[in-house]
Design goal:
The protein is of the alpha+beta class. It has one domain. The chain is about 15% helix and about 15% strand. The strands form 2 sheets. The protein has a two-stranded antiparallel ribbon. A two-stranded parallel sheet has the order 3-4. The protein is globular. The two termini are about 25 Å apart. One of its GO terms (molecular function) is ferric-chelate reductase activity.
């Protein structure tokens, strides 16, 4: 099981929230960009078979920054580079849901995603999971 050091609360970790739901969520999905230490341990731990996983308490802060309501806009342009695409996933899910349920004015969505290698694109299909 991954563990953290006494001073780990002073560190930032490369976790990005990728879940979005129109209602209350029972699960928070994170994308972890493994570096070293705790994040690398967590990725290795997460690769175990699902029947061997356990839940544990995590403390986190956020969200940080400003969330812009994009529902009033008819056309939206999202620009992302590399791993930065993951911060756009909740927005994209919300806009697609708004379009499908006619609760948003958004009718055109343009996504520009610049990547240095195809490996960045293959990590996960965030739209195959409805949450």
């Amino acid at each position: 099981m991954p563990s953290v050091s006494l001073w780990s609360w002073t560190q930032t970790h490369p976790f990005t929230v990728i879940s979005w739901s129109r209602g209350r969520q029972g699960t928070l999905k994170l994308l972890v960009q493994p570096r070293k230490g705790f994040s690398a341990d967590l990725v290795r731990y997460g690769a175990l078979p699902t029947d061997s996983l356990i839940s544990f308490l995590a403390l986190f802060t956020g969200p940080h920054g400003i969330t812009e309501d994009v529902d009033p806009y008819e056309t939206t342009l999202i620009i992302a580079t590399g791993f930065g695409i993951v911060t756009s996933i909740p927005y994209l899910k919300k806009m697609i849901h708004g379009y499908n349920t006619c609760t948003s004015h958004t009718r055109r969505l343009h996504l520009v995603w610049q990547v240095d290698s195809i490996g960045v694109c293959i990590y996960h299909d965030p739209f195959s999971d409805p949450s």
